[in-house]
Amino acid sequence: MKQKISSTNRIEMTFPNLAENEKIGRTLAAVFAAVLDPTIEELCDFKTAVSEAVTNAIIHAYPDSSGQIRISMDRKENQIHVTVTDYGIGIGDIKRAMEPLYTTITNGERSGMGFTFMEAFSDRLHVISRPGMGTTVFLSKKIGVGG
Ligand SMILES: Nc1ncnc2c1ncn2[C@@H]1O[C@H](COP(=O)(O)OP(=O)(O)OP(=O)(O)O)[C@@H](O)[C@H]1O
Ligand SMILES: [Mg+2]
After folding, report:
1. What is the pTM of this model?
2. I need a surface site. Which of 37, 42, 122, 134 has the fewest CB within 10 A?
């Protein structure tokens, strides 16, 4: 039997900055969007965008300590809004951080493409950050409306 889809839904989760939690964020995004019958491409894009935001919070926000990360997902009909918040070091120059290939980790492990992917794979991306206070990434995507 086909499941009846409610017009709105919301989930929220808080987890510590452990590498293993990237997968939880990515899976959460996939499960949350699944009700909208996304195409494989929509699902992959959405998962990638959310996972880049979560990975950034895990890797960059708390360089020498542990800290909390909060993810929320809101759905109104086919529109999903996601926030990923950390309370870490923040980003001094957001415009620069969002440039393709810009990374502050220069040991070759990162490519500086996270924000570029988030931008490419979502409909809207917005970042607010205060040095020493933390960062919130807002992203939204419309899913399952054909085309
Ligand atoms: N949550 C965050 N807290 C603090 N700094 C951040 C955060 N997210 C991003 N940054 C800064 O912005 C830079 C660019 O981020 P971006 O995701 O584009 O690249 P990256 O994470 O360095 O590399 P990649 O995502 O390709 O592995 C990071 O190197 C980091 O300095
Ligand atoms: Mg990144």
Report:
1. 0.96
2. 37
